[in-house]
Design brief:
single chain, 334 residues, alpha+beta, Ribosomal Protein S5, domain 2, globular, binds ligand 2P0
């Protein structure tokens, strides 16, 4: 697996010159999928079964600074929000494993300083912005000057959703069909939609029992309902793309909500069943349906966890904030 990924990275970088600097730095936004990525066709190259579409969260995300230290070492020194992480922590191990895909730096020791400004309590501190920022900081340090398409393909090796976090705004990750992964990359879509809002409805920040990676692999392997997912996701993606182009919140909201709940349906039909909802998640879903039936234009999406993200427009911001006290409102376009 490591060799396959390393070879892929080498092909992407190609003959880009190395103009090594002392350090590199980059920021990448977190993102929320409106049409979800769920299921892999290749685990080594991290290739998805279906294309997905997301919205990046503007100034909320990860800033990563890299330095090459004079000494040699097998493992990097990794700081998360100022705290040195143990080499044995899963966080440091994932970064070490990713950096080891690039043998051109030899045994030089990396210092990695990564800061998340996403409140971890909101359940949003995902690997997406983390791997996107890491790849972009590496590109800065090495002076490769790779374009965004190539950066998204490298970020994909770290985490699928990271491929979308190298861009702002609405982003599509094309699943591609080539076994070598050469046509699986993300690209930015359309113009900004400044009135678009996301609300984070925090239910719980307890660590989940089954992570996304294991959850999607289990769903693909055991869920009968998963068979219909690729077709549904492809249809939803088309509708969502058109709704964004037409600034049609109703179509976008309905389709994104149904897409998220369909993904959860495939998980519920897995064995053992994957139930990411907490009792309060269900309570809030009912509440969203109720306020919507009373005329408030608000929709939801949920990832592989209990927290809910609300989708709405600026014109309803005050009403949504009043209906959901404590809601964290995000302006993806600043
Ligand atoms: C998404 N999720 O599209 C979907 C919806 C969770 C639910 O992408 O194995 O951390 O690293 O490729 O990207 C989370 O999965 O998984 C995810 P890997 P990743 O946002």
């Amino acid at each position: 697996m490591h060799d396959i990924q390393s070879q892929f990275a080498k092909n992407i970088i190609g003959h880009a010159p190395i103009q090594l600097k002392e350090g590199g730095v980059a920021f990448a936004p977190s993102n929320i999928a409106l049409c979800k990525y769920w299921g892999k066709r290749d685990t080594a190259l991290n290739l998805p079964i279906n294309s997905s579409l997301s919205i990046s969260l503007g100034s909320l995300g990860t800033r990563t600074e890299l330095r090459l230290l004079p000494e040699t070492s097998d493992s990097p020194s990794v700081y998360l929000n100022g705290q040195l992480q143990s080499h044995d922590s899963s966080f440091a191990k994932r970064i070490a494993s990713f950096l080891s895909l690039f043998p051109q730096f030899g045994k030089r020791c990396f210092e990695v300083r990564t800061e998340n400004n996403i409140p971890t309590a909101a359940g949003l501190a995902s690997s997406a912005s983390g791997f996107a920022a890491l790849v972009m900081a590496l590109d800065d340090l090495a002076g490769w000057g790779l374009d965004k398409k190539k950066l998204s393909m490298l970020a994909r090796l770290g985490s699928g959703s990271a491929s979308r976090s190298v861009y702002d705004g609405f982003v599509q990750w094309h699943a591609g069909s080539n076994p070598d992964g050469s046509d699986s990359f993300a690209e930015a879509l359309s113009k900004p939609w400044p009135e678009f809002r996301i609300g984070i409805l925090k239910i719980s920040d307890a660590p989940k029992k089954v992570g996304s990676r294991d959850g999607m692999n289990r769903t693909v392997a055991t869920s009968e309902l998963y068979k219909s997912w690729p077709q549904q996701a492809a249809a939803d993606l088309k509708v969502i793309r058109a709704a964004i182009a037409e600034r049609d919140i109703q179509t976008l909201g309905k389709t994104a909500e149904r897409n998220a709940l369909s993904m959860h349906a495939t998980m519920l039909a897995a064995w053992p069943p994957l139930i990411y909802f907490q009792p309060e998640t269900i309570e809030q879903i009912h509440k969203i349906q109720r306020v919507r039936s009373e005329g408030l234009e608000v929709y939801l999406t949920i990832d592989a966890g209990p927290n809910i993200k609300l989708l709405f427009l600026e014109e309803n911001e005050a009403a949504v904030a009043a209906a959901f006290p404590g809601l964290q409102i995000i302006l993806p376009f600043g």
